[in-house]
Write a structure and sequence with these properties.
This protein has about 300 residues and is of the alpha/beta class. It has helices at about 25-30, 50-55, 75-80, 90-100, 115-130, 135-150, 175-185, 230-240, 255-260, and strands spanning about 65, 85, 190-195, 205-210, 245-250, 265-270, 285-290. The protein has a seven-stranded mixed sheet with strand order 3-2-1-4-5-7-6, sandwiched between helices. The chain is globular and about 55 Å long. The relative contact order is 0.19.
Length: about 300
């Protein structure tokens, strides 16, 4: 089965246009200033959607939240469910969250400098080559590379090596071991899994929020990435779920036609465009497609 988002041979997981290095616009959109911010930089962050999702989620907050494509956890941390099943096909992402849940302790101070960055990248790639990417050290290095590398990208070359270059940040506010501690309690009743999206075990009354890779022309995936067939499989799979469903995507004509044909109710939003390959920062149209929820 093809992976939904991550492939170690992929040239790039999402396009530059979708990358956000913890954007101020997303932070400002949160209705709860006390809500913890995502610990990673991640492509296509959805914290700006929280005010729109709140009205669907709050009447169902007693349910388990399930995210088949959990990414940077902006939605889960914004909605703060008591119980959650959070999945992603990227094993390094899930290893980091699982280690965070168990009380990740950082072994050294992190610095925003080229030489330490490339040394850490080399060490991380050695762990991958040895099959030890899922260790505590792997999680520590993944966090440092994510925060320090260019635009928070997660990209691998044809040999399966992490190859994101050093970033361009003047300053980086790295989390410390102390900063990680609140996540131990937050994650206590959250389960993290690493599988293809349609292998996620759904219960009939789960509230599902799904944010698959966007159907956009400038997004490039290698063979085995997220294809149009995967978009269709995602939409059809969730259309069978008897519980509440919110499906998020770019509002392309094909996506809107697909979702409408399967009986979803469509709500078009205007997303902040933070980084664009063309320099265009006008709001981009996105769609929230809902099922088993009031219009």
């Amino acid at each position: 089965m093809r992976s939904a988002m991550y492939n170690p041979r992929a040239r790039m997981l999402r396009s530059i246009a979708d990358v956000d290095a913890v954007a101020p616009a997303e932070r400002a959109a949160s209705p709860d200033a006390a809500a913890p911010r995502p610990p990673l930089k991640w492509a296509g962050g959805k914290r700006w959607q929280i005010p729109h999702l709140e009205r669907y989620w709050r009447p169902h907050a007693h349910r388990r939240l399930v995210e088949p494509f959990c990414g940077g956890l902006a939605v889960a941390l914004g909605l703060k469910p008591a119980a959650a099943l959070l999945n992603d096909v990227n094993p390094h992402l899930i290893n980091f969250y699982q280690r965070l849940k168990r009380g990740l302790v950082l072994s050294e101070r992190m610095v925003n400098a080229k030489s330490p960055y490339y040394s850490a990248r080399e060490e991380f790639n050695r762990l991958l080559a040895e099959g030890r990417g899922d260790t505590k050290r792997g999680a520590e290095l993944f966090y440092y590379l994510n925060r320090t590398g260019y635009n928070g990208l997660c990209r691998f070359n044809r040999r399966g090596e992490f190859n994101v270059p050093f970033g361009r940040y003047k300053t980086i506010n790295y989390f410390t071991t102390k900063d990680f501690r609140p996540y131990v309690e937050i994650f206590r009743h959250w389960r993290f899994t690493n599988t293809d999206f349609d292998d996620v075990p759904l219960d009939p009354d789960d509230f599902v929020y799904a944010d698959p890779p966007y159907d956009v022309e400038f997004t490039h995936y290698s063979t085995g990435g997220f294809s149009w067939d995967d978009q269709v499989r995602t939409a059809r799979w969730l259309a069978k779920h008897p519980g509440p469903v919110v499906l998020s995507n770019q509002a392309t004509p094909k996506i809107r036609t697909l979702y409408d044909s399967l009986g979803y109710t469509l709500h078009v939003l205007h997303a902040p465009r933070r980084i664009s390959c063309t320099g265009d920062r006008t709001p981009a149209a996105e769609v929230l497609a809902t099922r088993n929820l009031p219009a």
